[in-house]
């Protein structure tokens, strides 16, 4: 253990963010009540800021939306000095900060808790566009980016109350309900702006940022508990695992299932090495497969959750909440 810190209230969000272009990433922690804590890699506090309190004190033009907790955050802009600015997902609201963590704008979100945010990078077509996901009946929301760091200038009428939209919500793209198992960028031919792999317990799909619509979706008949990306026979795939014990490779380009293997118990985590070998964590143990998905070794242990860490490593959480780090032998 490198460091530990007690917090006064429950954590509603935690992520690692590259706030400084030339420095190491930092740990961003959102707390119930809307405070943001930022920690250096050694645990030194870099920032403690009561953002929700500041929002209530400063913002008088937000009728629709409630910022009482930080549910997600992402970098939406990086200045010439290399410093990043964050956007935050609250309850039916998005909040934009500048590089000094000052509130500079907000926008209504057609959803309750905004749990996932992706911003198209500056190097891509559609730079600055934002995609937000809520897991409950509201799909994926597309906010149109504008040049620079100023507001869009667009307002939305709510019964005659004109609420400013720092970035305008242009479309809500239907998707499945449930917590996100995956919501991240994937590179595909014909998608210069990148595509988004999204997955929940009951399905997965790839969203085109060019068409702002689904390239494909697999819906229903699933009970997924793990989803990530990998390669099979040189093709980029989504790797899924679920309560039925099946591990499946789905072609990212068209949604075809191209490989499947049964683990014998509910799958809770997946990790693939650079060579294509696979680590499969189930509720009863961990299996090692070669690049052709032929079983090599297995070790029995109760596993509650599993998290791939890269470099052929898998972090597992046991039923007693202890942690174990596994590495695939070459």
**For the largest beta sheet, what order do the strands appear in spatially?**
1-2-3-4
In N-to-C order, the SSE pattern is EEEEHEEEEEEEEEEEEEEEEEEEEEEEEE
> How many helical elements?
1
Fraction in helix: under 10%
The radius of gyration is: 21 Å
Parts with pLDDT < 50 across at least 5 consecutive residues = none
- Largest sheet report: 4 strands, antiparallel
- Structural class based on helices, strands and sheet pairing: mainly beta
Rough outline: globular
How confident is the prediction overall: mean pLDDT?
93
The total strand number stands at 29
* Oligomeric form: single chain
Strand content: over 45%
C-alpha termini separation: 27 Å
How would you concisely characterize the structure shown here?
Helices cover 2% and strands 53% of the residues.
Topology diagram in text:
Blueprint: E1 11-17, E2 26-31, E3 35-39, E4 45-50, H1 51-58, E5 72-78, E6 84-89, E7 91-97, E8 103-113, E9 116-119, E10 130-133, E11 140-144, E12 154-158, E13 161-165, E14 168-173, E15 182-186, E16 195-200, E17 203-208, E18 213-219, E19 224-232, E20 235-242, E21 246-251, E22 257-262, E23 267-272, E24 278-282, E25 285-289, E26 295-300, E27 305-310, E28 313-317, E29 323-327
Antiparallel strand pairs: 1-2, 2-3, 3-4, 5-6, 6-7, 7-8, 9-10, 10-11, 11-14, 12-13, 15-16, 16-17, 17-18, 19-20, 20-21, 21-22, 23-24, 24-25, 25-26, 27-28, 28-29
């Amino acid at each position: 253990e490198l460091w530990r810190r007690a917090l006064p209230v429950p954590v509603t969000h935690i992520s690692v963010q590259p706030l400084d272009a030339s420095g190491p990433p930092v740990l961003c922690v959102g707390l119930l009540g809307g405070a943001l804590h930022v920690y250096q890699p050694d645990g030194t506090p870099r920032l403690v800021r009561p953002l929700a309190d500041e929002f209530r004190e400063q913002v008088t033009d937000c009728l629709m939306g409630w910022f009482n907790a930080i549910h997600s955050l992402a970098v939406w802009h990086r200045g010439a000095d290399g410093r990043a600015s964050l956007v935050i997902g609250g309850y039916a609201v998005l909040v934009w900060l500048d590089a000094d963590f000052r509130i500079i704008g907000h926008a209504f979100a057609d959803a309750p808790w905004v749990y996932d945010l992706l911003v198209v990078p500056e190097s891509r077509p559609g730079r600055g566009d934002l995609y937000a996901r809520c897991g409950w009946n509201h799909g994926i929301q597309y906010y149109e980016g504008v040049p620079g760091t100023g507001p869009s200038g667009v307002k939305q009428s709510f019964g005659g109350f004109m609420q400013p939209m720092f970035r305008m919500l242009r479309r809500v793209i239907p998707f499945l309900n449930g917590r996100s198992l995956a919501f991240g960028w994937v590179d595909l031919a014909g998608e210069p702006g990148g595509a988004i792999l999204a997955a929940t317990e009951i399905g997965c799909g790839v969203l085109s940022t060019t068409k702002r619509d689904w390239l494909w979706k697999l819906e229903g008949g699933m009970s997924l508990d793990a989803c990530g990306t990998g390669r099979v026979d040189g093709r980029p795939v989504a790797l899924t695992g679920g309560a039925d014990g099946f591990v499946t490779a789905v072609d990212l380009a068209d949604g075809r299932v191209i490989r499947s293997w049964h683990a014998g118990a509910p799958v809770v985590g997946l990790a693939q090495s650079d060579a294509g070998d696979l680590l499969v964590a189930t509720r009863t143990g961990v299996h090692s497969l070669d690049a052709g998905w032929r079983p090599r070794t297995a070790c029995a242990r109760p596993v509650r959750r599993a998290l791939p860490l890269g470099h052929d490593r898998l972090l597992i959480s046991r039923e007693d909440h202890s942690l174990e780090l596994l590495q695939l032998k070459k």
